[in-house]
Design brief:
One of its GO terms (cellular component) is plasma membrane. Pfam families: FXa_inhibition, Ldl_recept_b. It comes from Eudyptula minor. InterPro entries: 6-blade_b-propeller_TolB-like, Cueball_EGF_LRP_Nidogen, LDLR_classB_rpt. Keywords: Lipoprotein, Receptor. By secondary structure, the protein is mostly beta strands. It is about 0% helix and about 40% strand. A four-stranded antiparallel beta sheet has the order 4-5-6-7, with no helix packed on it. Strands 8-9-10-11 form a four-stranded antiparallel beta sheet, with no helix packed on it. A three-stranded antiparallel beta sheet has the order 1-2-3, with no helix packed on it. A hairpin with a 7-residue loop joins strand 2 and strand 3. The radius of gyration is 19 Å and the shape is elongated.
Length: about 180
């Protein structure tokens, strides 16, 4: 799945398949300007920062179990969001501090460091990743991902895929080759 935020005409957090199909709103109320987004891949939770409401909130992948982690002055001007173990990590764009927030109670907020021009934050650690199984976009014996001549996008599950073409090409009638 692909998760993303939008705060155009109607602010929301959405998800869709990697090929753009099955687009679903998972949060569309009591939300103003969702920006940074982070996923707990193991427990299947979506966290986001709302810079207008000065809040960090969470829902499960279906948009249920919503609650506010932290709200108010402590979390103004946040950009970037990452999840690791019991904490959320974020950047305060006003003073460029890296903050650590306990994601279970929101009361434990610590400034860890200050970095010039920091706007994003990521955690790279093996425990944050789920196990990868074989999938429909694996490279075939001819070196083509999922048998697609240009781009292979996973569809509704790991066994299904959709082929797409680079700009200037159209998908052939076989659904795999680009012309």
């Amino acid at each position: 799945k692909l998760f993303f935020t939008d705060y155009g005409n109607a602010a929301k957090v959405e998800r869709c398949d990697m090929d753009g199909m099955n687009r679903t709103w998972i949060v569309d109320s009591k939300i103003e300007q969702p920006t940074a987004l982070a996923l707990d891949l193991v427990n299947k939770y979506v966290y986001w920062v709302d810079i207008y409401l000065d809040s960090v909130e969470v829902v499960d992948y279906q948009g249920r179990k919503r609650h506010t982690i932290i709200k108010g002055r402590q979390v103004r001007h946040l950009c970037g969001l990452a999840v690791f173990e019991s904490y959320l990590y974020t950047v305060n764009s006003d003073n460029l501090n890296i903050l650590r927030v306990n994601r279970y109670n929101g009361t434990d907020v610590q400034s860890l460091a200050r970095l010039d021009n920091a706007k994003e934050i990521h955690v790279y650690q093996k425990r944050t990743q789920t196990a990868v199984r074989s999938h429909a976009c694996e490279v075939d014996p001819y070196g083509m991902p999922g048998g697609c001549s240009h781009i292979c996008l996973l569809s509704s599950n790991y066994k299904a895929r959709t082929c797409r073409c680079r700009t200037g090409f159209i998908l052939g009638s076989d659904g795999r080759s680009c012309k």
